[in-house]
Amino acid sequence: MELRTLEYFLMVAREENITKAAAMLHMTQPTLSRAMMQLEKEIGKPLFFRGKRKITLTDEGMLLRRRAEDILSLVSKTESELRKEDHELIGELTIGCAECQASHLFLPRVIETFTHLHPKVTYDLHTGNADLIKERIEAGLIDVGIVLEPVDLEKYEYVRLPYHERMGIILSKDHPLSQKSKVTSKDLLEIPLGNVRRNLLKSELASWFKEDYEKIHIIETHDMISNTIPLCAQGICAAISVEGAFYGHSDEKVTFIPFEPELANGTVLIWRKNRMQSALVKEFIQYVYHTLDE
């Protein structure tokens, strides 16, 4: 399977039409069709449902699309790192970002000053929870990631960031609980809730709720709170979340109420242990240390 063939495949997947994809690739339609049939033959499974006007992906096609995007992204990143000149830092730094204060407050400050020092560096930011960020670090698709504890750090080097995230709920400003300064587990027994999907965080919440955990009414689960904010704004549910995820939504029809007793988690910047890092990644990590020492 050649990289060029993967590029052809992605173009067909995006255009959903062989003729349009061939035009974008500056090749003939029969040539592209043969390349896709040969790809299916190599894989041994169909990748497309071929309609009269539109091509859609099979389950195998959707999997290959995700993997092809990752592979080509990694190739591009590697080529950029290898082309850098000895006297300057150049390339793309890929950063995973949890929805938290460190991503909203600390990271922009670091990037702003790092960019002044190294103007040819670009940034590719990926938002995700700790599980997704770790998975992409393992695959070599993310260089460093900001994640919320609790998180298994055995495979990672890390530096703790000076932010502690209070847990609480995000809910409509019209909700009766919105007037409270803090909420207890008893307050949450009678209302529909959105809950986090991460198992480690769910275990922490179970310990906080104690015997009430089995009584709460979960109607929705989420990886990223941004997908749940509209439900909260409409009063459909109150979403369990960290306070930092509320940044960027404070002007909407929702508010954040912390837990009582307080439940808070630390924030860490992680990168893969025992892996050769590019000069760019090493310099960025050192600059994070420098910023924390200021």
Q: What features would you describe in this structure?
A:
The protein is α/β, with parallel strands linked by helices. It is 40% helix and 24% strand. It contains 9 helices and 11 strands. Strands 3, 4, 5, 6, 7, 8, 9, 10 and 11 form a 9-stranded mixed β-sheet that branches. α1 packs across α4 (59-83) and α2 (18-25) crosses α3. The termini are far apart. The model has no long low-confidence stretch (mean pLDDT 90).
Tell me the number of strands.
11
Query: Shape from CA axes?
Result: globular
* Helix share, percent: 40-55%
In whole angstroms, the N-to-C terminal distance is 50 Å
Task: Work out the strand percent.
Answer: 15-25%
| Overall mean pLDDT | 90
Overall structural class, as computed from helix and strand content, comes to: alpha/beta
Number of helices: 9
Low-confidence stretches: none
Pattern of helices and strands:
HHHEEHEHEHEEEHEHEEEH
| C-alpha Rg (nearest Å) | 23 Å
Compact overview of the structure:
This protein has 294 residues and is α/β, with parallel strands linked by helices. The protein has helices spanning 3-15, 18-25, 29-43, 59-83, 101-117, 130-138, 199-209, 229-233, 279-293, and strands spanning 48-50, 55-57, 91-97, 121-127, 144-148, 156-172, 192-196, 217-222, 238-242, 254-258, 264-272. The strands form 2 sheets. Strands 3, 4, 5, 6, 7, 8, 9, 10 and 11 form a 9-stranded mixed sheet that branches. A two-stranded antiparallel sheet has the order 1-2.
